[in-house]
Structures are given as C-alpha cells and as structure tokens.
Design brief:
Length: 307
C-alpha cells in the first residue's frame, strides 16, 4: 500500500458511562508502545463536560495518576461559563489527531458523547447555525414536554439520544432543525480515517452497580464542594443546571430544592437512563466491535495496527 495516500489510523473507544473507557484507552496506548506497534499513542477525550475547566469530579475527568504517563488531549479547554459547541470540538479534535499522526503515534479517541465521536470519525459537515434570539425566546416559553414532543416529531433520531431534561440542548437542537429544515445527518459507512471502534459492553445490572458505586465515590471525593466552588466562581445556577446530571442535581440540592437522599436517588436513575441513551446511539453503528474484556480489545488493536 502507498502510505502517502493511506488513511491515517484512528482507534475509538466508546460505550456507556461508568463502563471503563478511560482505563481501557490508557491500557491500549501502553500496549501499543510496549508491543512497538507504533512509536506511541495518545488519547483524545470525547466527553462534552470534560472539556470544561473545574468540572473534574462530577464529569469523571481522568487524573494525572490515572493517565499513567499517556498524553491526553481536549481536557480543560473551555470555560464552563460558556457553551462549547460540537463544531469547535470537531475542529480541535481533528487538529489533535493530525498532530499525533505526524509524530508517528496512534490517536485514540475515547468518550461517551456520541455526537462528538461521530463528528470526528464520520467527518460530519455540521450546520453552522448562529443563535436565533427570537426563536429561542419563543421556545423558552414552551414546557420541556412540549419541546421533547416537537423534536420527536421533526427529528426522532436526535430525540432518541438527547438528554430530555436538558432544556438548553433541546432548544438548541430545535433551533438547528427549524433553521436548516434538516435533521441531524444519519451515520454513514465512510470515514476519513482507517478506523477501529471498540465498544465496551456491560450487562445492565453490572452497569447499574458500577454507576451507583461511582456516584458514592464522587460524593465522598468532594463533588458537592466542587459544584459549590463553581458557583462561587461565577457559574450560574442556571448554567450548572444546563450542564446536566451531577451538576444539575447537586446544584438543586445545594439550593435546597431537594434533599441529599433525593439527589442521590434521582441522580442514579438519571445516569442509568443516560447510559441507555448512549447505547441507543452507539448501537446504530454496526462497525463497532463490542468487547467485555481488555484482552479482547488488545487482540483487535494488534490485528488492526499490523494489517
């Protein structure tokens, strides 16, 4: 094969929240170096909340120790006070991939934000739709249930995967569809990369146990203090609510809207439902190789890089 015209190789590690994606990506990167399959590998985060500074415990952002000397990209690249768009993510991720490839290393895209993954691996041409103040004002007057129903009617694919409690995302999705008169583009079989996508599969009960255990660890590690600190540093309650999951429900607890027990119970349910939406998104892609052990993943990686 003429390497000058070959597509650059890209490995993607996907799956539901709490399934162990970050650990697997690091293990793959270390394996690539140890087996001299390339000069090394680097990880690019594909998580819509880990891009923000200060969203550490609640987003499950990987720590320096957990990175085990593997370089990571697209963590802490935006202020939580402002929205970070998928268009900006796509641009930065493609730039990081090109840099990694130029240095003879293997890029590993790792995360659970399906739209981020697809924007890179399928090279979506994303609609460049500026804010529509008049339309937003009109949509803000509608109930959340009404917004969900409208999105389901005009873009059922996006409605099936969006956080249906996140009014900001619902309004933005409707804004794009109503402005472009076109739904989110369906996934295609083509990619600008020679792509291996590895998905982590976990039985539902095991995943729920992992989610519950992780939530208690995060609370013990200071997640409530993290959310309080973000608010003290100028992130509004409304913005924290819009950041979803841990940041939404912890902020509501801190405001006295619900008890600690209700916060934990609601969060557990919401995260489990979020994991189901993630799987709905990823199962649309028949090219994903689903694995249950690290060993299975390493076999796939070796075969992929040696071909």
């Amino acid at each position: 094969m003429d390497n000058s015209t070959a597509k650059p190789k890209l490995i993607a590690v996907v799956g539901p929240t709490a399934s162990g994606k970050s650990d697997l990506a690091v293990s793959i990167a270390r394996f690539i170096k140890q087996q001299t399959l390339a000069s090394g590998a680097e990880v690019i985060s594909a998580d819509s909340r880990q891009v923000y500074t200060g969203l550490d415990i609640g987003s499950g952002k990987i720590t320096k120790k957990e990175m085990r000397s593997i370089p990571h990209h697209l963590l802490d690249v935006a202020s939580p006070k402002r929205t970070f768009t998928v268009t900006r993510y796509q641009r930065l991720a493609k730039k990081a991939i090109a840099s990694i490839v130029r240095r003879g290393r293997v890029p590993i895209l790792c995360g659970g934000t399906g739209l981020y993954i697809d924007a890179v691996t399928r090279d979506y041409i994303l609609p460049d739709v500026p804010p529509q103040p008049a339309l937003r004002k009109e949509l803000e007057l509608r109930s959340t249930d009404t917004l969900v129903a409208q999105l389901t009617r005009i873009d059922p694919q996006r409605a099936a995967t969006i956080d249906q409690y996140n009014r900001r995302r619902l309004i933005r999705a409707l804004e794009i569809v109503l402005t472009t008169h076109s739904p989110v583009p369906p996934i295609t079989s083509s990619s600008p990369y020679d792509l291996l996508t590895i998905g982590i599969a976990r039985p539902n009960e095991q995943l729920r146990s992992l989610i519950e255990a992780r939530l208690h660890r995060r609370i013990k590690s200071g997640m409530l203090k993290e959310v309080a600190r973000l608010h003290e540093h100028g992130v509004s309650w409304n913005r924290l609510d819009g950041l979803g999951l841990e940041y939404r429900w912890v902020s509501r607890h801190l405001r006295g809207i619900l008890t600690r027990e209700a916060m934990i119970e609601t969060l557990t349910t919401e995260i489990v439902q979020y994991a189901k939406r993630q799987m709905t998104w990823f199962k649309r892609d028949p090219s994903i190789h689903w694995i249950t052990t690290e060993a299975e993943a390493l076999v796939l990686v070796k075969k992929f890089l040696e071909k």
